[in-house]
């Protein structure tokens, strides 16, 4: 696992044990070699999930994933957001699943296809996506607001 230019690099194991830097400052490692799959237990993933509080831990079949939903201002803004996510994903060489439904609702799902589960790369990518500033609908609700309703 590498950090941004000029910063010391961390291995997957080091970043898993003690993340002294934020996830968004780390760089996804290539999936060409051995990629360490994280436990799918929510308790084991708490330190990662704490850095991306708007994301939910989900399971589709036996595959754990992280997911975030957005309500965009309009269809074109949703498509523009896809392009911004594409740019981040290409830079990290790690790609999410993207969905646009009902012309406003964008859902981003991330997992590592190679291991059919979660790796540190997934949380790094989510943190980088969180740094994007999409034009949200005035009806968009945060995770906390959705829990209240």
UniProtKB/TrEMBL annotation:
PANTHER family: PTERIN-4-ALPHA-CARBINOLAMINE DEHYDRATASE
Enzyme Commission number(s): 4.2.1.96
UniProt catalytic activity: (4aS,6R)-4a-hydroxy-L-erythro-5,6,7,8-tetrahydrobiopterin = (6R)-L-erythro-6,7-dihydrobiopterin + H2O
Family: Belongs to the pterin-4-alpha-carbinolamine dehydratase family.
GO aspect biological process, one term: tetrahydrobiopterin biosynthetic process
Pfam entry (one): Pterin_4a
Chain segments annotated as coiled-coil in the UniProt record: none
Taxonomic source organism: Norrisiella sphaerica
Gene Ontology MF terms: 4-alpha-hydroxytetrahydrobiopterin dehydratase activity
Domain of life: Eukaryota
Record protein name field: 4a-hydroxytetrahydrobiopterin dehydratase
Keywords: Lyase
